[in-house]
Design brief:
Blueprint (H helix, E strand, L loop, with lengths): L11 E3 L2 E3 L6 H20 L14 H22 L2
Antiparallel strand pairs: 1-2
Helix pairs in contact: 1-2
Length: about 80
């Protein structure tokens, strides 16, 4: 399966021409949008923070980042199917 298209998230409209701009890709934007959901899911499925002395569970940040980008990849793939 080929990798989904990953254009820039916010292309600029210059003199009637849409041009890519530097910065965030659509994958990055989708991962950021998925972030609150991912945090909720990871916290829901993790042991309570009290088990870690009230601290963030080990590998929390890495897990949230990885899952957010996996959701973004699924959104990009679905976007291509719908075209």
């Amino acid at each position: 399966m080929s990798k989904p298209e990953n254009p820039t998230a916010f292309p600029c409209n210059t003199q009637g021409q849409i041009e890519p701009s530097e910065g965030m890709t659509l994958r990055d934007h989708f991962a950021g949008v998925a972030l609150p959901v991912t945090i909720g899911l990871v916290l829901e499925c993790s042991p309570p923070p009290a088990s870690y002395g009230g601290t963030i569970p080990p590998m929390f940040h890495e897990t949230v980042a990885r899952l957010s980008y996996q959701m973004a990849d699924a959104m990009l793939a679905e976007r291509m199917i719908e075209r």
